[in-house]
Amino acid sequence: MTRARQLHAGSHSSWSSNHSSSRGGSLRNRRPKTKDSLEKEKRIRRLDEAIVTGNIEELRKLSVTGSGFVTDGIRRRAWPLLLRTHVPRRQAAANTSVPHKDDDQVRLDVIRSFTHLSSETKSQQAYKKQKQDELLHVILDVLQRHPKLSYYQGFHDVCTCLIVVLGKEAATLAAETLAMFFFRDCMLENLEPVLEQLSLMTALLKLEDPEVQEFLDRSETLPFFPLSWVITWCAHDLQDFNKIARLYDFLICFNPLMSVYMAAAVVMSRREELLEVECDNAMVHTFLTKFPKTVDLELIISHAHQLYITYPPEALQKRSEIWLDENSCVNTFSRPGIHLYDSADEKISSTPIDFTPIDELLSKPRIKKEKGASALSKYPTNSLQLYSRNMAAMLVFSAASMGTATLLLMNSAMFR
Length: 416
What we know:
The protein has 21 helices and no strands. It is mainly alpha-helical. Residues 1-41 are annotated as: Disordered. Residues 69-255 form the Rab-GAP TBC domain.
């Protein structure tokens, strides 16, 4: 089933469920409510109340447990609140007359998007073209409003997810917030900031599962294999759109580093299979880049949240002595004046986001939060060289699973 059909099928199912009581028929023909259906009704009531009252903390709790925000209809109400796009923009319209430096690459990626949509008939071709035009509009709006940002291959996957759930107009606003608050480290001049984020996964594994990290060390496997998971929130790696949307429910609610906690949880969930793999760099990397199709997403979300509570981003940096930049989106997420939520109790703000402070940060040089060497310098030089040499071979072995991540790594300054 295509993503579009899944969306329409889910919407129809939700409508049918919500209106079953209004249809004709005797009581004997009505199905008795099950424990699951009662729990779903209770969750939907809690979600509705949290959305109406703007209760961020309650939405966070619900994003961690059960089925998250349940339906795309609820997501269309909850995501804009969490991303603070439910109020008009403060900034002026984007300057579309000046092409962005990455304009050509964006257009190439858009042409290759929405491949799941059929284009056999003229109407199908027109629909696919419409969706591609919408995607182009969403991406270029972000880049033209914030020309200091750089496009990366994978951001189109994020924007595609937003369009499917929210529609063009709401997706345009949501993409700007995600770019500036959550994916900013991915949208700088090179990939080093996001690779440094991934370095913190090594610290998590050492703390929680040292046997797994020792195995990765012996195989000289660097922590960059989940790059596409982090830069697309698995939109590039999961085929089931319901799982993608469920993961977005969770990741939208927390610090941008949560995707790294999620990656660590996935690795630990596969420890038994992993330790049976031949302790060889290419073999281990190829195994790990494939996001497991049968993963229990609820267990992963629960474990990632537990890791986040146990080792909060700043505490994790201090404990591991792996410091991200002072102006990393991880370290500024809760900074006064840049925080996504204005008030101390994190209630939804009724004022539009002022992106000016973040635009100013984008013009400043990168400075470590604490003095010390780059996180990437902690890895042995020979391991980095081996990783660089093996990238071409790894692409041959696992092109389908590596996709965007491989292309990004091979073009990163660190691997030149």
